[in-house]
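Box 3.1 A note on notation
Throughout this textbook, protein chains are presented in two layers. The first layer is the amino acid sequence; the second is a token string describing backbone geometry. Keep the layers aligned when reading.
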Amino acid sequence: MVHRKGKKDAKGAGDELSYTVIGAAIHVHRALGPGLLESAYEACLFRELLLRGVHADRQVPLPVIYRGARLDCGYRLDLVVEEAIIVEIKAVSHIKPIHTAQLLTYLRLRHLPLGLLFNFNVVVLRNGLQRVVNELGDLCVLLAFAVPHLFARA
């Protein structure tokens, strides 16, 4: 399930923490504006979360488990906040369905329910935010590829 602009999902997954992360991201975006590399926004958001007393880890390795083997395929999660929310940072002209599918896959592999996808290359960060809930597991990832218009921005 994809939510934009801070709308709540039926289960209210991680609302308070997600609003804290969103607030921190808005603060970073207001200070820096669009036009920087994703790595700059990631470093600044990480710092802002620490200043707000929120624990986060950067560039967290995400192995793929295939036929019982743990394989390091080079995947890294931009931020994992309080071991509850995956934050994926982009600085692109617009979010594409593959970006949403990528975050849904990360949520599934990490067994976490909530992800926040930020595109910092916008004038107002609210317009570059997607709140992604992994409540359907594998079905969400399949839907993102099979029916991309369901995940497209309005």
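Confidence is low (pLDDT under 50) at residues 1-11, 150-154. The radius of gyration is 15 Å.
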